[in-house]
TrEMBL record, chain B:
Subcellular location: Mitochondrion
Cross-referenced InterPro entries: Asp/Glu-ADT_sf_sub_c, GatC
Function: Allows the formation of correctly charged Gln-tRNA(Gln) through the transamidation of misacylated Glu-tRNA(Gln) in the mitochondria. The reaction takes place in the presence of glutamine and ATP through an activated gamma-phospho-Glu-tRNA(Gln).
Entry's EC annotation: 6.3.5.-
Lineage, opening ranks: Eukaryota, Metazoa, Chordata, Craniata, Vertebrata
Gene Ontology MF terms: ATP binding; glutaminyl-tRNA synthase (glutamine-hydrolyzing) activity
Broad class of enzyme this protein falls into: ligase
Record key words, sorted: ATP-binding, Ligase, Mitochondrion, Nucleotide-binding, Protein biosynthesis
Xref: HAMAP family: GatC (MF_00122)
Pfam families: GatC
Protein name per UniProt: Glutamyl-tRNA(Gln) amidotransferase subunit C, mitochondrial
Length: 533, 187
């Protein structure tokens, strides 16, 4: 947990609701004990003997920036970085006399996302205004869909590696309460030195999909896995690029603790999260903080704004209800096709979702679900694997280990992405071929891999030749080495002759030491067996 | 434009003179207009106003058609506790803590209470008179933006292409502080 200790400082700076009584000291992280992993469907059994453990309850509110060319209600372009206030129209600046005009692409994106998450699409949805005063909200209200959003009642299934050794793949699901379209606010830069705030409205009015999830999750690990899965789905759909560091996917976590069966505790919000790893840590930290507070008799204080309750909503008078049609048959006659959003058409256009991709990999290559999970989870790894499979004749099950353990291990150690790998699929295929044809042993292969990584460009054959790692098949040479070993270890030979097979391995080891691991192990064993008869 | 209005004023005045003789009920209206300092300057407005008067426009009923709603039909008068006044002041950013302010608010609520007399069972509330219109959907092509200079000129304070605002929200003083600050208020 060294990494988490280092990150503790970063947490203090970022968590919005840090209570003042916790000084800025390093905290030791403790792994939150979650309830048994396979009981996501079964109710918690009540133990009458001991009081139950406090468990965390996590609900997520996710804002995903819609991947569109223009904003939700105006024709201003959407871009990540641009000169301040250069992507702002009169409507975005809320000049009087301007009106919202809905972007069809945003509606289609919301419907597509709703379909991918198994939601019910509301054929008729309404827009509301949510009023609050803040400098980056020029109108004084945000147009959103609180009452009747475009999609409701969905489910997101996700998996993560859990269990004691983190090798068991656990499947969970979280209910999605609703998906609504809403406007983004501008960006404010605080200049505390001069006591002023600088406002950039480039982001004001960009379309967002707010996904509200039920508090079904229990720990930071689960929340992180759910968000990762959502990120993969949104990226596959193309409705959101899902880059958390660029603010395209913003997650707020509502965290509380309680004993199972009892009512939920006071919740606090964890905001300003810009990576999935940090999300997991921040949530776990908050759960632990609350558990400590409750156990020592203190109460958890909800420090959010005092008057942020459901006030300040009114229907948006400038926008009639949004109607989407089920299929072409239900379209009213004479309607302009560019004015109709048809759910069936969008359903037909849905691309392959990550879950389906994983199943396909398992079917096609016969690999384990755990492997396909890892392949799909890492950006570009699946493509790497498939390219590799095209050029190698080896069995997928043998190849997968190289990809998920060796390659991925090396990448993770150096915090690199698949696209930055110094070993291309073609080179790795060559290495595997050398191993398969018996030119090198498995241990030598790993050595060659390391060398290929370091040299970045040398082929496997080159390295094998340079370092003389090729297996020695010359029977005479091996024979003479074995003879030497046998002659110098008469006791062991005697033991083997008397039935102790384990000592044979020691002899093999000695031979390998002599040959610097280059002897063909099968051949060595054969010869030694012969000699020890 | 000015020549037209002058001609109209001359014509209008002569019409008024004519009608004054014909319609005695017009007299009070005209008297009103006469003492209105703007009589000469807004002849068209006066003409329109005249034409909309009760006597001339058949759509306006001759007698009032509404009846005052009796007190017993209304729900009990709403009390406004100090916490609610607090909350309203926060939301609206308006001070109305005086006796007069509260009375005004209570009267306004009472007036609106008359709506309770109407039976609305089974009727969905209306959000917008546009509810029957089709919501127009726009193509996703960029047609706006790129007017930073124009927008920045509208603001009082700007710094290098950014708008300047006071730091965050200035929080209203807490309840305890406020009561000491507003000792002079009648609440």
């Amino acid at each position: 947990m060294a990494a988490s200790r280092v990150a503790a400082n970063e947490l203090f700076l970022n968590i919005k609701l840090m209570p003042k009584r916790y000084p800025k000291a390093l905290f030791l992280f403790r792994q939150i004990s979650t309830s048994r992993p396979h009981c996501d469907k079964q109710p918690e059994p009540r133990t009458k003997s001991a009081p139950q453990q406090l468990v965390g309850v996590v609900g997520l509110e996710i804002h995903a920036q819609i991947n569109s060319n223009t904003k939700l209600f105006s024709g201003s372009p959407v871009r990540f970085s641009a000169p301040p206030n250069s992507l702002v129209s009169f409507f975005d600046a809320s000049l009087p006399g301007t009106f919202p005009v809905l972007n069809r692409r945003c509606v289609e994106a919301a419907v597509m996302t709703g379909l991918a998450l198994n939601c019910t699409i509301n054929k008729r949805s309404y827009f509301d205004r949510k009023h609050y005063f803040y400098a980056d909200l020029p109108a004084g209200y945000q147009i959103t869909q609180q009452r009747r959003p475009i999609a409701v009642d969905g489910v997101l299934t996700y998996s993560y590696f859990g269990g004691r050794k983190r090798s068991q793949m656990i499947r969970k699901s979280v209910q999605i309460k609703q998906i609504q379209l809403e406007q983004d606010s501008g960006k404010s830069l605080h200049d505390d030195a001069r006591g002023q705030t600088l406002i950039d409205l480039n982001r004001a009015g960009v379309g967002l999909m707010e996904l509200v999830m039920e508090p079904d999750m229990k720990s930071g690990e689960e929340a992180a896995a759910a968000v990762r899965e959502l990120q993969l789905i949104l990226q596959a759909l193309g409705t959101c690029q899902g880059n958390m560091s660029e603010g395209q996917l913003r997650v707020d976590a509502n965290v509380s603790v309680h004993r199972p069966g009892e009512p939920l505790g006071t919740r606090t919000e964890v905001k300003n999260i810009n990576s999935i790893r940090y999300l997991s840590r921040a949530i776990d930290y908050e759960i632990q903080r609350q558990i400590d507070a409750v156990q020592s008799g203190r109460t958890v204080q909800n420090e959010t704004r005092a008057y942020d309750s459901k006030s300040g909503f009114m229907p948006e008078p400038n926008l009639p209800p949004l109607i989407v049609y089920e299929d072409n048959a239900s379209l009213p006659t004479g309607i302009d096709p560019s004015q109709a959003v048809v759910v069936q058409k969008i359903k037909d256009r849905l691309p392959e979702l990550p879950g389906v991709k994983r199943d396909r990999l398992v079917q096609t290559y016969g690999i384990l679900p755990e492997h396909s999970f890892t392949l799909v989870n890492e950006d570009g790894l699946m493509e790497y694997f498939e390219t590799l499979m095209k050029t190698t004749q080896r069995e997928p099950r043998k190849v997968i280990g190289w990809v998920t353990n060796e390659l991925l291990g090396h990448l993770k150690q150096r915090d690199m992405s698949v696209s930055q790998s110094p070993i291309s699929p073609a080179h790795l295929a060559e290495l595997l071929k050398l191993q398969e044809t018996g030119r090198i042993s498995s241990s030598a292969a790993k050595q060659v891999f390391q060398e290929m990584w370091r040299s970045g460009g040398k082929t496997a054959s080159q390295i094998v030749q340079e370092q003389e790692l090729g297996l020695v098949h010359d029977v005479a040479q091996v024979h003479s080495i074995c003879q030497k070993v046998v002659d110098s270890h008469p006791d062991e030979v005697y033991a083997v002759r008397n039935g102790n097979k384990k000592v044979l391995n020691k002899l093999i080891g000695l031979v390998q030491k002599e040959t610097k691991g280059r002897a063909d192990p099968v051949l060595v064993k054969e010869i030694l067996l012969q000699m020890t008869q | 434009m000015s020549s037209f209005s002058l001609a109209a004023s001359r014509r209008g005045y002569s019409y008024f003179v004519l009608l004054k003789k014909r319609c005695p009920s017009f007299k009070p209206l005209l008297r009103n207009l006469h003492f209105n300092g703007k009589f000469r300057k807004d002849p068209i407005l006066n003409l329109t106003r005249f034409l909309c008067s009760k006597s001339l426009n058949p759509k306006i009923p001759k007698e009032p058609t509404w009846e005052p709603v009796s007190e017993d039909q209304l729900p009990p008068p709403t009390q406004i506790p100090p916490e609610l006044v607090d909350k309203l002041e926060r939301l609206a950013l308006v001070d109305f803590r005086t006796k007069q302010g509260l009375e005004c608010l209570e009267k306004a609520i009472r007036f609106a209470d008359q709506l309770h007399v109407v039976d609305t069972t089974g009727i969905e509330p209306m959000d917008s008179v546009l509810e029957d219109r089709a919501l127009f959907l726009r193509e996703d092509t960029a047609t706006d933006g790129g007017c930073a200079e124009e927008l920045l000129q509208l603001a009082n304070k700007t710094v290098e292409e950014y708008f300047v605002a006071p730091p965050g929200n200035i929080p209203l003083p807490k309840k305890e502080e406020r009561s000491s600050m507003l000792k002079h208020s009648e609440l």
